[in-house]
Design a protein that fits this description.
Layout (H helix, E strand, L loop, with lengths): L3 E10 L5 H17 L3 E9 L2 E8 L2 H8 L2 H13 E10 L5 H11 L1 E2 L9
Helix pairs in contact: 1-3
Length: about 120
């Protein structure tokens, strides 16, 4: 397999009452990711109370283009008010499975920040 760009996120709700809002944003954003140009795969799992996504992209540019798609952009704008978390993106020769993705995220992810300069 040629190198692919891997994105792993993990968000934890600030309070349980944010769950309906979180899921109303997360589910459409995941569907958008799965059909985005350059996406090779995207899935989500809740592990130890952290809501994770694992997506595989043809390139970092493809992933960055997805960041500004409407449903994902709406979710990105809302998440800082309802969740905290970390994210990591990197190139790899293969897509990690979930146990490996969780280990990578725990060891190397950085605090989640909305890239305000890129948001319209």
């Amino acid at each position: 397999m040629a190198q692919v760009y891997i994105s792993i996120t993990g968000l934890k709700l600030k309070a349980i009452w944010h769950a309906p809002r979180f899921w109303s944003l997360a589910m459409p954003a995941m569907a958008e990711a799965q059909s985005a140009p350059g996406n090779l795969g995207a899935s989500a799992r809740s592990i130890d109370g952290v809501h994770h996504t694992l997506s595989i992209w043809e390139s970092e540019a493809a992933m960055r283009a997805f960041l500004t798609m409407p449903r994902h952009l709406k979710a990105m704008r809302a998440f800082p008010g309802i969740a905290t978390g970390k994210t990591i993106g990197f190139y790899a020769d293969y897509a990690p499975d979930w146990p490996e993705a969780r280990r990578i995220w725990a060891a190397r992810a950085r605090e989640y920040e909305v890239p305000r300069a890129r948001l319209p």
